[in-house]
């Protein structure tokens, strides 16, 4: 029987992770099966335990379960511990290793695929949920001049900034408090785009050469990228590259082989152009 992996989430039907891992497995000659599992909102722990009992070897975790996955893991990688959120689980008997590959995935997409250096840049991180937690530490390690976290619930932004002890470049605020500031790199880590909603961002945030990055991806331009384009952002990018890069990190953890990401990203872009699907 093939080794079993899965992504757990709610919703999860839109996930491209099964297609990505199937492509990685084919390219790396790995015998594995990967499925998407829709989890009831109060049933995450039970679903994961049933999967492990059925022979599951590893899992990805998507919204809204990343913080619960962090509590379920018996051991955390340092980056998952710093984030307080887990998007990758590796089951080894009773030991469940929790990792967070979102930050590494975003950094690889920004610096290698999009040529955005981050060092010395003014960075705005929108959102303070599981995705923002995962990427904050790696973003700060990349050496921005300053990094501001803004969130609808302002207290969560402050709580997230406080998780980074000694990181002087980071501060937190509400959306209205962004007025009068401008940024070189603006990252939407909220789930507003998932619901088709726009963020109430003040004018003037997008510097002339800025890159607007939405972690959300789909066939259509997201509300955040539409807004960024209309407010003068020079470059727009969705989160498909991050998705493929974070998946490659997880695949390497599980299988010990690093798959090439460019062909898989090209395949997904071509597929979404042809079908118009997410
Ligand atoms: P969470 O549910 O953990 O966090 C949601 C965040 O979005 C919170 O900060 C919340 O603010 C904010 N938010 C939700 N709705 C609105 C709204 N209408 N207006 C303003 N803010 C809003 O989700 P995740 O952090 O796990 O995921 C966030 C997004 O990132 C999702 O779209 C997800 O698909 C994407 N993602 C993409 C990845 C990729 O590889 N491309 C990887 C990981 C995530 P508040 O605190 O006020 O509720």
Describe it.
- By secondary structure, this protein is α/β, with parallel strands linked by helices.
- It has two domains: 3-100 and 241-270, Rossmann fold (3-Layer(aba) Sandwich); 116-238, Rossmann fold.
- Helix content is 38%, strand content 23%.
- It is built from ten helices and twelve strands.
- It has helices at 17-27, 44-53, 66-72, 78-83, 102-113, 130-141, 154-162, 223-230, 240-255, 262-275, and strands at residues 3-9, 32-38, 56-61, 75-76, 88-92, 95-99, 122-126, 146-150, 170-173, 183-188, 206-214, 235-238.
- Helix 1 crosses helix 9 (240-255).
- The site of NADPH dihydro-nicotinamide-adenine-dinucleotide phosphate has 31 residues, from helix 5, helix 6 and helix 9.
> Strand fraction band?
15-25%
Overall tally of domains? 2
Describe the global form.
globular
Helix content: 25-40%
Number of helices: 10
CATH topology of the largest domain: Rossmann fold
- Strand arrangement, major sheet: 2-1-3-5-6-4
Task: Let me know the CATH homologous superfamily of the largest domain.
Answer: Leucine Dehydrogenase, chain A, domain 1
Let me know the average pLDDT. Answer: 94
Highlighted features:
2 domains; binds NADPH dihydro-nicotinamide-adenine-dinucleotide phosphate; alpha/beta; Rossmann fold; 278 residues; single chain; six-stranded parallel beta sheet; six-stranded mixed beta sheet
Layout: helices, strands, pairs:
Layout: E1 3-9, H1 17-27, E2 32-38, H2 44-53, E3 56-61, H3 66-72, E4 75-76, H4 78-83, E5 88-92, E6 95-99, H5 102-113, E7 122-126, H6 130-141, E8 146-150, H7 154-162, E9 170-173, E10 183-188, E11 206-214, H8 223-230, E12 235-238, H9 240-255, H10 262-275
Parallel strand pairs: 1-2, 1-3, 4-6, 7-8, 7-10, 8-9, 10-11, 11-12
Antiparallel strand pairs: 3-5, 5-6
Helix pairs in contact: 1-9, 5-6, 5-9
NADPH dihydro-nicotinamide-adenine-dinucleotide phosphate binds at residues 63-64, 66, 102, 105, 127-132, 151-153, 156, 189-195, 197, 199, 215-217, 239, 242-243, 246.
């Amino acid at each position: 029987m093939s080794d079993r992996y899965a992504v757990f989430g709610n919703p999860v039907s839109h996930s491209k992770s099964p297609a990505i891992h199937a492509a990685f497995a084919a390219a790396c000659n790995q015998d594995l099966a990967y499925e998407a599992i829709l989890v009831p909102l109060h049933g995450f722990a039970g679903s994961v335990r049933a999967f492990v009992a059925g022979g599951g070897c590893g899992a990805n975790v998507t919204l809204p379960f990343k913080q619960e996955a962090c509590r379920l893991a018996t051991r955390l990688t340092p980056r998952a511990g710093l984030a307080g959120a887990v998007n990758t689980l590796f089951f080894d008997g009773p030991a469940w290793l929790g990792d967070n590959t979102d930050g590494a995935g975003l950094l690889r997409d920004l610096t290698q695929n999009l040529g955005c250096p981050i060092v010395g840049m003014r960075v705005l991180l929108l959102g303070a949920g599981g995705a923002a937690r995962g990427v904050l530490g790696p973003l700060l390690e990349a050496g921005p001049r300053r990094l501001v976290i803004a969130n609808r619930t302002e207290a969560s932004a402050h709580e997230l900034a406080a998780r980074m002890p000694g990181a002087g470049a980071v501060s937190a605020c509400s959306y209205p408090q962004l007025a009068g500031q401008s940024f070189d790199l603006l990252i939407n880590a909220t789930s507003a785009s998932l619901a088709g909603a726009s963020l109430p961002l003040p004018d003037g945030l997008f510097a002339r050469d800025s890159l607007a990055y939405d972690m959300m991806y789909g066939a259509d331009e997201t509300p955040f990228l539409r807004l960024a384009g209309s407010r003068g952002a020079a470059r727009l990018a969705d989160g498909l590259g991050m998705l493929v890069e974070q998946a490659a990190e997880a695949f390497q953890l599980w299988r010990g082989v690093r798959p090439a990401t460019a062909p898989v990203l090209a395949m997904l872009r071509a597929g979404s152009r042809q079908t118009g699907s997410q």
